[in-house]
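Quick one:
INPUT:
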């Protein structure tokens, strides 16, 4: 049977036309998908900058659905979930990334770091620690170690925190001697609660070795000596603290007065407090000095100096403690209550980092967990 070449001549143009149409269809679809993905992405970015997080999340979800292979969109979406407190959804996004076999190593490490942050923000500290451990030896090594240090502080695992701080300092990530001194002090307080005075002594000795200029180890060491019936050693520690750090010595005024009385060195202690009052007049120093002198603060000749150099509601309270021949006892009592109500908000310590206020001094802020962020002076004395 003869082959008809006319059919071949007709088939070739038809095949060419069908191929051209198919290619045009694919190119249009690709251009449309490529155009739609950035459009959704930029829409989400615009909404995010406008602080419309709900709509931004919807836009990013749409973008991810249009282009599920885009890694950056997944990170943006996971970060938004974490900022909104939707930690379970953030974990799912980052776990989905980690399950991808085609993910580049840099993106895999980034996803692991994001997943560890999700766990940490969610309060799943055991999972966060395990996730941060995977990042050792990666580009996120230092960040993961710093995060684990924060985890150990939160869980009050002071031996682990001390070991991690030593590693970070060895690696040149910063100076952690002050923190390590606090960790040793915390271990000393835990030993004190157990009644293990030998462990207290060892912990405080290591704290002083870590940070010789730190105030807290000397203050705790003085109290340790006082508990052991060694007032002379306690007084020596506090005298050293006064010379090194007069500001933080204000936290030890009661301890200083007690140690001076028990050690039989009232005259020397009075002279030291009088010199301190001359340099830094305050109600606390006046009360400690009057305690050593055996008089009430309202009878002290230094009260006028205090009111002149540091006028405050606390100074007015001292004045109202003295008998008043003009006002009745009921009226004086009413004035005391009024002044106390007004003075209480000012008789607090305030964190210089986050503004957290408390009636007692903290070495670590309960609000932002910063160390040494509470000045030793109250708000009205600052």
């Amino acid at each position: 049977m003869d082959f008809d070449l006319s059919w071949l001549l007709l088939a070739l143009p038809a095949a060419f036309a069908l191929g051209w149409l198919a290619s045009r269809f694919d190119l249009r679809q690709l251009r449309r998908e490529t155009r739609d993905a950035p459009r959704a992405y930029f829409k989400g970015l615009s909404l995010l900058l406008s602080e419309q997080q709900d709509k931004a999340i919807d836009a990013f979800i749409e973008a991810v659905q249009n282009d599920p292979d885009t890694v950056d969109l997944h990170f943006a979406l996971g970060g938004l979930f974490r900022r909104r407190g939707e930690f379970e959804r953030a974990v799912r996004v980052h776990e989905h990334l980690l399950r991808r076999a085609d993910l580049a190593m840099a993106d895999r490490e980034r996803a692991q770091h994001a997943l560890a942050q999700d766990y940490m923000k969610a309060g799943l500290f055991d999972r966060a620690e395990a996730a941060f451990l995977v990042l050792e030896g990666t580009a996120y090594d230092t960040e993961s170690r710093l995060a684990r240090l924060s985890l150990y502080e939160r869980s009050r695992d002071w031996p682990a925190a001390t070991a991690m701080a030593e590693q970070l300092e060895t690696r040149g990530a910063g100076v952690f001697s002050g923190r390590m001194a606090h960790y040793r002090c915390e271990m000393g307080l835990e030993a004190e609660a157990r009644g293990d005075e030998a462990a207290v002594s060892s912990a405080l000795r290591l704290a002083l070795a870590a940070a010789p200029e730190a105030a807290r180890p000397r203050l705790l060491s003085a109290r340790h000596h006082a508990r052991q019936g060694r007032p002379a050693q306690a007084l020596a520690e506090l005298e050293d603290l006064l010379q090194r750090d007069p500001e933080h010595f204000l936290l030890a005024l009661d301890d200083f007065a007690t140690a001076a009385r028990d050690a039989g060195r009232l005259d020397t202690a009075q002279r030291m407090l009088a010199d301190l009052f001359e340099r830094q007049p305050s109600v606390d120093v006046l009360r400690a000095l009057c305690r050593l002198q055996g008089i009430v603060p309202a009878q002290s000749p230094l009260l006028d100096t205090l009111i002149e150099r540091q006028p405050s509601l606390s100074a007015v309270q001292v004045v109202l403690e003295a008998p008043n021949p003009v006002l009745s006892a009921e009226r004086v009592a009413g004035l005391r209550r009024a002044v106390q109500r007004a003075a209480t908000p000012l008789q607090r310590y305030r964190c210089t980092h986050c503004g957290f206020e408390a009636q007692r001094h903290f070495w670590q802020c309960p609000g932002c967990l910063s160390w040494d962020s509470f000045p030793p002076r109250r708000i009205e004395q600052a």
